[in-house]
Amino acid sequence: MSNVREPMIHPIPILALRPTQMTVGMREVREKRKRWREQEKKKQAESLGKHMIPVVRGPEKRFYVVDHHHLARALHDEGVKDILVTVIGDLSMVEKDAFWGVMDNKRWVYPYDAKGERRHFKDLPKSIEDLKDDPFRSLAGELRRAGGFAKDTTPFSEFLWADFLRRRISTKTVEDNFAKAVEKSLELARSQDATYLPGWCGPASEA
To answer: In the beta sheet, which residues pair with residue 118?
Structure first.
C-alpha cells in the first residue's frame, strides 16, 4: 500500500467526508471560524488551496479524514461546501468488516467519546457536522499554543493531553473559567506526571 500523499484535483463535498474521531473542541472550531471570516475572499480561496484535508480512501470509495477535523468542521459551519483532500493511504481493497481494525492498527482512528471512554467503531459519526464537543480538547489545543507542550507527530496527541487534563481539572472550571483552566494546565504540563505525553517540554527552568 502506498502512503505517498496524493492531492485530489477535484473538490470533495465536506459532508461526504467520514470522521475518524468522535469529538472536536468547539471553542477551537469557533476560533478557526473567526479567523476565516476575517480573511478577504481572495485569501479564503488561497487558504482552501493550501490547507488540503488528509484522508484515507476506504471501501465503497469513501474518504476518511485522519487530521484537520477542526478545520473541516469550521469551514462547514461557515458555509463552505467543497474542499480539496490529500490521500495519505489507500485501503479501498480492504473488506468492510476488517477496515476499522486496519485503521486502528495504523493509528488512523481515535474512537473515544467526550468522556475519554473508548466506544465501538460503529459509534463514530458519519459526518463532520455530527462531531460532538469535548471542552478538554479545546483546553489541550490552547495549552499547546501557550507553550505547554510541543507540536508532535504522534497521532491524536492533543487528545492524549485532553484526557490527561480531564482527570485533573473539573469540567466546570473549563466551561466557567477557561483562563484559570489554562493556567492550571500549564502547571500540570510541567509536572513529572506528564512526562509520558507526546511533546512534553519538561519543568520550567529556574532562574
So the answer is: 112
How do residues 70-96 score in pLDDT, each as one tens digit?
999 999 999 999 999 999 999 999 999
**Integer Cα distance of 172 and 149 in angstroms:** 23
Task: Residue 44: count other Cβ atoms within 10 Å of its Cβ.
Answer: 16
The CA-to-CA distance between both ends of the chain, in Å, stands at 51
Q: Which burial class, exposed, middle or buried, applies to 127 when counting CB atoms under 10 A from its CB (0-12, 13-18, 19+)?
A: middle
Output the pTM of the full model: 0.89
Q: Are strands 23-24 and 132-133 parallel, antiparallel or unpaired?
A: parallel
Query: Phi first, then psi: what are they for 186, rounded to 5°?
Result: -65, -40
Alpha carbon distance 24, 139 (integer Å): 11
**Cell of residue 11, nine digits:** 473538490
Report residue 96 CA to chain centroid gap. 24
Grid coordinates representing 75?
A: 469551514
Q: What is the pLDDT of residues 31-45, one digit of tens each?
A: 999 999 998 888 888
Domains and CATH numbers, the chain: 6-133 (3.90.1530.10), 135-194 (1.10.8.10)
Grid-cell match 487530521, residue found:
67
Q: What's the chain's average pLDDT?
A: 91
Asked if 123 and 111 touch (Cβ cutoff 8 Å), the reply is: yes
Enclosing H/E stretch for 133: strand 132-133
115: which residues sit within 8 A by CB, 6+ positions away? 166
